[in-house]
Amino acid sequence: AFFWLVSLLLASLIWFVSVHLSDREDAKLQYGLLIFGAAVSVLLQEVFRFAYFKLLKKADEGLATISEDGRSPISLRQMAYVSGLSFGIISGVFSVINILADSIGPGIVGIHGDSPYYFITSAFLTMALVLLHTFWGVIFFDACEKRRYWCLGLVVASHLLTSGLTFLNPWYEASLVPIFIITLCTGLWAFFTAGGSFRNVLKCLSCKQEDDSRVMMYSALQVPFED
Amino acid sequence: MITFMNNSDSEEEPCNERTSLMSAESPPVPSYQDGLPASEAGEAQAHRKRRTGSGRSPNNIADGDMSDSGVPVRESALENEEEELTLKYGAKHVIMLFVPVTLCMIVVVATIKSVRFYTEKNGQLIYTPFSEDTPSVGQRLLNSVLNTIIMISVIVVMTVFLVLLYKYRCYKFIHGWLILSSLMLLFLFTYIYLGEVLKTYNVAMDYPTLFLVIWNFGAVGMICIHWKGPLQLQQAYLIMISALMALVFIKYLPEWSAWVILGAISIYDLMAVLCPKGPLRMLVETAQERNEPIFPALIYSSAMMWTVGMAKPDTAARGPSQQTWDAAEDGRENHRSPSHADSQMSETRSSIPARPITSFEELEEEERGVKLGLGDFIFYSVLVGKAAATASGDWNTTLACFVAILIGLCLTLLLLAVFKKALPALPISITFGLVFYFSTDNLVRPFMDTLASHQLYI
Questions:
Q1: Where are the annotated segments for Disordered (chain B) (predicted)?
Q2: Which of A86, A110, B22, B344 is 20 to 30 A away from residue A74, measured at CA?
Q3: Which residue stretches of B325-425 are H helix?
Q4: What is the ipTM, given to two decimal places?
């Protein structure tokens, strides 16, 4: 969350500077600058995700060296999930908390001609964004770990695409539906990246117990050897 | 905040930098490695002295994390284990501190956002006499700097006074002062708070009920804080009084003065803890010379420490005792309670198959408590509360400050685990908090507002 905040800070700085250096009156220019600011922010978020990956790798190595069995207590996949989730949470909260706070107060949505579905679509978009960040985190870390840079590029591209699709608001059919399709696909991709498969799902659903394939060896001369 | 290591070393161990800041109150425990201090258990036997945080008292994090494994293994392996334990328990400590700090901030922010009273300007404390209602920016800045200077000097004077009192063993005086302050805090400020909350929600309450409620609340609070009580209740009371104190600060400190004071306090904390002649450091050293626990009052503790007596000579022999840390808050507005975070470790599980395992050894290894001074709670909450009150109704700023403070706390505890000596805890968190407040309020807010108005997501 901290890393995401820092990236947002830098992006806002860039946007702020650009706005102040430009002509305030020109609405088209301001809108263009906003698009530019959003794109910069997306790229910076991914850069900071990568930086966080590097930091976690270092910490992971440190933990592994000092632990008893040479493995760190948290696997990289868990770290990827947590990192993605925290990015998602802070991003979602920052996007929606002010809207939520305003939704308590008295008012009418869309009284000046905007869409009356502002709140509900914001809620859905935020949910999609949180899920997306989680999935991107998993895929990103796995791609960095296995050095599949095309995966990285795809994640960044899908983030840019999602952000760009929100520019089509309030034409919600064109923005919400594709974003949810992207969410679904990214989710499936992350699921398979994290090692899931149809068989896992079936096993989980049928609640079968795993066969314990370990065998205890007993000997008259030895105490039982337990792993 | 000062970090501490409570270690007991064998007598012949040379007194180096690490040991000089430690309290030697642990009973002599044979340690297997020269470089490995045994777990401290002296807290259990040291009589508790009550100290008033009548002045600027140390904010400390104490970290005692030596493990007494009782295993004759190679020193490197033991050091590894020690490091691992440090990091493992370090992470646990961080979480154990996150929860109360978060709770305190939530209470403060919830109150600020809902009760109008604490955001209205109704005068100032006498410690900040210069008003900020001046026409020019320069004048306002000058007034806030002067206010800060006065406040910090009051705090310094109070701290020095406290150190002198402690040095000359005027314990009764401190004790009485402490009781008086916590009385005021628990009764008067609670009464005001309850009154304002009832006013906000337009709930009628008659005086007899009010009297009953406040009497019970205050009496139980005094008992829990100064004497014994269930740990959760004591923690809850400490969080509440920290929140009340923070609310008073938020209400009565003028805006610019508050920010400058926060900055100055963290610089003062840095100096007072790290400089050789700093009052806090002297306090710490005096307490360690006397084998007394430092500031058992005004400290938030997250666990009770149970120690168990052992029959075997090669493991830690400690008397069974229960230790609860009493803490109370000084009610005066200018006072800061000492911040003292201290993690103690009880005996770790002995894993030698050669030794017969007694039932005593089944004591959990997770009995370290973390202690954090109430002053830290107060100033963190002041920062977040001010952000909530003055950031033009924006929640993003509050959240950003919250995250920044928690990350600062994390980093401080990490540094503590690395350096293992007295470290101040305010500077990093407050610096992060201030940086994030000003940058979020001025840079991020317009960006996010513009994005939200077009319903754009990044």
A1: 1-77, 314-358
A2: B344
A3: 374-390, 395-419
A4: 0.85
